[in-house]
Amino acid sequence: MLLNLLDTRGLxxxxxxxxxxxxxxxxxxxxxxxxxxxxxxxxxxxxxxxxSLELSEKNFQLNKDKMNFSTLRNIQGxxxxxxxxxxxxxxxQIQRLPFLQSSNLALDTLRGSDExxxxxxxxxxxxxxxxxxxxxMMVEYKLxxx
Amino acid sequence: xxxxxxxxxxxAGFNFDNAARNAALEGLFERGQAPKPLKTGTTxxxxxxxxxxxxxxxxxxxxxxxxxxxxxxxxxxxxxxIYCCGAGTAADTEKTTDLLSSNLTxxxxxxxxxxxxxxxxxxxxDMLYRYHGQIGANLILGGVxxxxxxxxTVGPYGSVNEVPYLAMGSGDLAALGILEDGFKLDxxxxxxxxxxxxxIHAGIMSDLGSGNNIDICVITRxxxxxxxxxxxxxxxxxxxxxxxxxPGTTPVMTEKVVPLKLEVVQESxxxxxxx
Lengths: 146, 275
Hints:
The complex is a heterodimer of chains A (146) and B (275). Chain A is mostly helical. Chain A has a domain at 44-143. In chain A, 49% of the residues lie in helices and 0% in strands. With 275 residues, chain B is an alpha+beta fold. In chain B, helix 4 packs antiparallel against helix 5 (189-206). Chain A: Belongs to the POMP/UMP1 family.
């Protein structure tokens, strides 16, 4: 519950602690430029976000976790975020096969997002996505054989 | 890492793929003829009185210069003791208040307690600040909880104010004039309803974006009285939704009865087994 109270903090700490995801991958589903839907690719499109919220939304969960952990470390000492991160790492390993959608129940419970509804539960729900990756390719990619 | 045969499912939440396309299309339309979202162009007002909170709103939704909805409901349900008036982009206010209501319901199911108005305000503030004003929702939240009667305003960038009386929307200046003139602490119920009605009426008269009927919602410790419409506009048209005529509207001129002769050709009896 403590982590849920610390959602928004001062701007300065946000800038210092943020871990930007470098670059913006092309918008197509396979990571390749979808010329039919989004036009020709250009360097500007790949480096700069086309919408002011794009970068901040991409990094939102990362930034939130980083801020929460650093506050927890300041209040309770190093052991608290270490233990929590160990649990997160364990919960993240409970997944189905790569081409199937996992429910992430343990991860949700740890994060507290099983008690909250936001836009990411309604819009673009991955469980309702109409495309599935090719099973053999996805598993080979995960095992590093590709 | 991206490979051309490995599918990356898009992240959940908002999808910004169309932003670049929209920017390119913006240049194609002349003089900004790109379609605009439906705004509510509203007058909403709220007043704290002795036993609770009165919220009022008009019912017009505009899309540029056309009235898109004459009976739009701008007072949204959040919790049994909390209601919210929304001004700004119609879809944004609807969705945001829906999400807020769901979150508070989950909370009360989890903890077995009634939600407080300040919790609704905090959730809204976090949500709206995260999107830096791109969600165009100006909201007035009013409710009664164990700590008293509260009226809050939340702006689209996440700013919060707690005030005893309030008006928002495009007609807020006219409504605020009436409220400033007539407000006193600890008003009675009828006085408070009349004050809010007068404020919304002033907004309707002075602002093009507000109009049609006035809705009033009274929230007290005993319950909620959602009066929709509280006052109907004098200019409503008399078109009916259903056109059903009474039997006997059309006069019968002549009547001719032809009996249908039937012959019994075959008869078979099957016994029914009643136990």
